[in-house]
Amino acid sequence: MARVFSGIQPSGEMHIGNWLGAIKNYVALQDGNDCLYCVVDQHAITGAYDAASLTRRTQEMAIGLLAAGVDPSRAVLFVQSHVPQHATLAWLLATIAPLGELERMTQFKDKSDRLESIPAGLLTYPILMAADILLYRAERVPVGEDQLQHLELTREIARRWNATFAADAAYLPEPQPILSPARRIIGLDGQAKMSKSLGNTIGVMESPEEIWQKLRPAMTDPARVLRTDPGTPEVCNVYALHKHFSPPEVVEEVAANCRSAGWGCIDCKKVLAANMASTLAPMRERGLALASRPAEVAQVLGDGARTARTMAAETLAEVSDRMGFLPEAK
Ligand code: AQP
């Protein structure tokens, strides 16, 4: 039984990249592991954001996780800001985290390139992520490929902390990633990673009509200009998505009809839209039902936060002790 931790930012709606890349693994890992899943709202404020929307999105992300199959009787589900030990541990770890490594993080470089004024929190984001994981001494972290670099830094921070403060016994485990077969889902632009902040997503709660409206203009094989041009499925992101939502025989049919120009891109997208909508339908139904019971969701998050705080307090006490902080008199 391994300790598993992962988090998702409420920086927008949960999209099919999040679901295929990480959330499906959250659900699968609940069998036989000790799992904690967190809506990491403090990470979501490292970019420009609207405070009222953050409240709503945090609730929606919790609903999304429950609708996807995170089960509060088998996993601890909570909101990061409800457990103040995350931010405290992040500060302690910031004192040993290597600045050069933080500056080399691809996500920091990509996101800071789009900004005129770069908030320090964008640079120190991976330290908070390290704290999220190490606070529960997690051994396994289900993530998409984009988070591997941050996870490697978490391992480096754990190594440094252990070498300095726990040379006798590695108190903070070096966590291992767990990747899904969908390591990196490309967005509807056919170029960048599907990302909440890039607006190239399909949300897991979207209606069949919304899915179709988004898929219709999605990028396909750029060389296929006319309906009669044969296409190359391997370079088409719509074909890549078929592999995650359509049965194998349909995937074969799609490839054959693309190569022969038997189907146009719109025909191919119609089949994908139908299969995507039917795959996501049960999640959407559960999500809509949960949204009408906010008190129940709040209760789950409250229970989760209480459990998480107890675990977090224990680690933080040990870390503080080893770092030489004077304990408060009882
Ligand atoms: N496109 C993707 N393909 C596979 N996995 C993905 N993940 C995100 N996008 C993809 C994985 O989903 C989990 C939760 O992601 P997150 O919200 O915490 O952070 P993120 O990776 O930064 O996601 P976004 O959508 O790109 O958000 P923004 O735009 O706000 O930064 C993670 O395990 C992630 O790997």
Task: Report on the architecture of this protein.
This protein has 330 residues and is mostly helical. It has two domains: 2-185 and 294-322, 3-Layer(aba) Sandwich (Rossmann fold); 205-288, Tyrosyl-Transfer RNA Synthetase (Orthogonal Bundle). 53% of the residues lie in helices and 7% in strands. It contains twelve helices and five strands. It has helices at residues 16-29, 51-68, 85-94, 99-104, 106-113, 120-134, 148-165, 208-215, 237-245, 248-259, 265-291, 294-322, and strands spanning 3-8, 34-39, 75-79, 140-142, 176-178. Strands 1-2-3 form a three-stranded parallel beta sheet. Strands 4-5 form a two-stranded parallel ribbon. α1 (16-29) links the parallel β1 (3-8) and β2 (34-39). Residues 8-9, 11, 17-18, 21-22, 143-144, 146-147, 182, 184-185, 193-197 line the site of adenosine-5'-tetraphosphate (AQP). Adenosine-5'-tetraphosphate (AQP) binds next to α1.
